[in-house]
Each structure stands twice: as structure tokens, then as C-alpha cells.
Amino acid sequence: MNTLAATAAPPLKGWAAYKQALPEDMLAALIVTVLLVPQSLAYALLAGLPPIVGVMASLLPIVAYALLGSSSTLAVGPVAVLAMLTAQAVAPVAQAHGISPSLAALVLSVEMGAVFLIAAALRLDVLAALLSAPVLHGFVNGASLAIAIAQVPALLGLPIKGNTLPELWASAQAQPSLQPHWGTVLMGGAALLLLWSLRRWATPALKAVGLPARSAQLWGRMAPMVVVVASIAAIMSAPQAWQGVALAGAISLGDGLQFAPPWQAPLAVWQDLLTPALLLGLVAYVESLAVAEALAARRGEAISPRRELLGLGAANVVAGVSGAMPVTGGFSRSIVNFDAGARTRYAGIWTALFLGIAMATLGGFLSALPKAVLAATIFIAVLSLVDLHHFSAAWRYHRLEGGLMITVALATLFLGVEPALGLGVVLSIVLLLQRTARPHWAEVGKLPGTEVFRNVLRHKVETLPHLLQVRVDESLVFTNTRWLADTLGTLVHQRPAVKHVVLMMPAVNFIDLSGLEGLQKLNEELRSRGVTLHLSELKGPVADRLMAGGLAQWLTGRIFLTEAEAWNALKA
């Protein structure tokens, strides 16, 4: 049985109809709440913020997304990669302006929300394409490794801080007499071992004792909560034995209401965080949309990219004004929400309600939670995101794409998030310009006995000495205008017998003004040599643009509907 498969449910309208989905939504919310408790605390720790900030990020932002988003199963909240990005963005700004990192995080949340809402208003969801697959995979792998490595000091009880390898190394070098805290090492090591064992063996063990596959998978994903409860029990039962182990501290929802609102931050803080907000918003949107679309496809549902922008925008604005860190759609909790049978996005509202009740009643209990256990939770979670297969597959497919992926991953580890993403986007654009500047083309000939034309280097085809047929496999734009005239001009110069050139253009989707002038220049150069230029298999919109550019007046040859028609007309 495929545990991710689900039957598409009819749309629910009104309270009377929603009552059908209410039991399933409430059950899914209860299960997700169990997962959210350790996640919220761990990701706040990762962002360098108080634990309550992570809790607040899992409350009202979920409700805001439920009201405006489009996915029935996407669970919004703090996630590992975004938490690391938040740490790298707010720490230097907070230090430079003498404010708390929490206040800077609120400003960042509001700015990210504004970015999402403006993008939705301007229908800019297509900008997600700026993060190409090599950049995204390289960044996620590099960020995941950076996050995992950054947890090692917490697991050893060492006061080493940093988000990149050079920062961690510099912090360690500045404190040469550091010694591990062995109680922390024991607690963190036990948590790592238990988390890894439960992740690997819990689900198969539950299946072996007769639990249904779906239930076994859901309970297996609750492993972090088991470890949290066990570690708290160990601390509370023998506090002297664990003396010196850093704890999360008291967590109260009342503390979450006592924060400086973002509008109290100086204007310079808003200015300094604008660029990080743009980059983090792009990453958050791409990650969230990918999760939403993957889960929607399994239910036969449709996702609206624009409504996702609206939902994430509202969630982050609400996060900023309610004392929370930036949020986006998380993969792990969304999968759990999906598997638990959530029918509508309103399951998120029940999740927020259950989490609020849990934190109001269990906040004192969670004060004994060791930070090393949270670090172990992050370590195990992010290592599951590391997939080296992407690198080998990209390298085999295209060396430049593979090199780009490796470059972005290393830049994330050694330089940080903003330089890595900026470098990745720039290199992606450079690769795109390189491909369009040197587009693929092929001389074609006729397959004997057919009206099919193929590359002369790949197939045994018929050609005519006075006829040169060239297929262009790229749109003609300003980057390749010079290539067009130079390549075909050289080809014709090498073949004095050629009297007709046919440009076969089924793959040409667009010709800009530079491309039009390039065609005109090619036409004049060929005419001066006594050669006639023809065009074939033009797409309708491309033909319309060329006709508006006076094609009928300057083209020396004809426009053919098919390449076979050109062959038959010019073969004599």
C-alpha cells in the first residue's frame, strides 16, 4: 500500500460540508502538534533566537496561511534552512545597530511578508525560476551540511559560534583552552543514537508487531518527541548528575506577548535587512511551492502559485507582528500532515490551537529540555536533506551544471548564504547567456523515402549541392545575432555551389529586434554572393512578428510551410 496515496475529495463549502472533514483535520492537527513541539524549539535555537520565538512561529502564522493559501496539506512554520538563513541575516544587523536579534527577526519577517504580497500583486511568481535546479540542490545540500556542522559545538558543550566553516574555525581558535563538557557529550550522543535508531527501525518494528503500515509510519515520525520526553525525564530525575548541561529554559506563552514590535526598530535596520528579505523570500517560496505541488499532485489537486504567495505573505507579516521568526512550508511536517489524513488547510488552525494548549500547560516541563537534544534533533533532521546523488547525476548530465551545483554548495559552506545564492544566480544567468549565444544548430538532409529531415552527422540522408538546409534550435535574440551571420556566412563561403539557404525554424519561439536585424544582415550578405535565403516551419507568432518587421519586403526567398515543401520547390 502506498502510504502517500490519497483519494481526491470533493471541494468542501460551508460549515455543514466542512463537518465531514472535521474529525480527520483534528486528528492530523494533533499528530502534527506532537512533531511541532521539538521542531519549534530546535529551529529557534538554530536561528539564535529564544525558544518562545519558534513557538510563536508555529501559532498565528499557520492560521494566516490557512485563510489565504491554496494547499490543503502544506504545514507552515519555522524550517531548518530558513532558520539558518535567519541567523546569518539578523545577527550582524542586530550587532551593528545595538538591538536584539529577536527584534531584527521580526523586521525580517515583516519585510519577507511584504515581498511575498508585492510579488503576488504584480504576479511575479515566475521569479522562482531564478533558482535553477543546480543552484537549489547545491544550496540545500551545502546549507544542510553547514547546519549539521554548526550543531557539533552544542553537542560537545563548547561555546563555539558561527554559521560557516571559517566562522566556526575562527571562534574555536579564539578559545584555545576549550574542553568538552562530558555530561553534554553523553546527553547529546545518546540523543543522536536514539534518534538515528528510531528513525531507522521504529517504523519496521511497529509494522512487525502488527500495526498498519500508515499508522506505523506516522508513529515512527514521532521519534523526536520520544527523545525529548526521555531527556527531560533524565534531567528532572537526577539534576545533580547532569549539572552544567545547558537547558532550554522556561517557556511561557506569556513571554511570547512581551516583545518590542518591529516598527520600533530604526529605519537603518529595515534598510539593511531588505536584501536578505528578498533572498530569503525567494528561497522560502521555492521550497514551499515545491512541497505544496508535490503533495497536491498525489491528491489530484491544483496549487495556485499566486495564492501561495498571498498565504506566505500573510503568514510572515503575522509572524512579524506576533513575535515570531520567518516561516515557510516545511517538508517534514507537511508530509506528516498529509499522511495523517488532513482534508483541508483549516487543519492548520486546529494545529495552532492544540500547540497553544500544549505550550500553556507544558511550558514549565519543557524548561528542563537540554539544548544538546535540540541540536541532535536538528543534526539528524538536516542530514536527511543531504543527497549526494544530485551531484553525481548533474555531473554526468552536464559538467557545467554539475560544477555550478558544487560551487554553490561550497560557497554556502565557506562564504555564507547570501554570497552563495548571489553567486549561483549570476552563474546560472551566465550559463543561460552562453547557451543562447552559441545555440545548437544542424545541417539537415532528407531521409530517403520520407518527408523527414534530420542531422546529416547523425543519419544517412539525401542532400543537394546547391541547397543548404540548416535547422536552428534556439530563439534568435540579441545574444546570438552575431553567431547567426558569422556561422552561416562561413558555411556558405566554404561551399561555392550553394545557391539557396533554407533556415528550418520549428524550435524558434521568439525573435527580438536584434534577431530581426541579424536575419536582415544575413539576407543581404547572402544576396551579395548570389545566394537566396528562405525560411521554413515558422511558428505563427514568430511569423506575425517578422511580417510586422517587413519580412515580405526584404526577404529574397520564400516562406515554406514545411521543410519538405522547400525541398520539393528548390531541388531542381
TrEMBL record:
Gene3D superfamilies from the UniProt entry: STAS domain
STAS domain boundaries: 457-572
Subcellular location(s) per record: Membrane
Residues that span the membrane, as ranges: 26-47, 59-83, 103-124, 136-160, 180-198, 218-238, 273-297, 309-327, 347-366, 373-392, 404-433
Record keywords: Membrane, Transmembrane, Transmembrane helix
Membrane topology: Multi-pass membrane protein
PANTHER family hit by this protein: SULFATE TRANSPORTER (PTHR11814)
Protein name: STAS domain-containing protein
Organism: Ideonella paludis
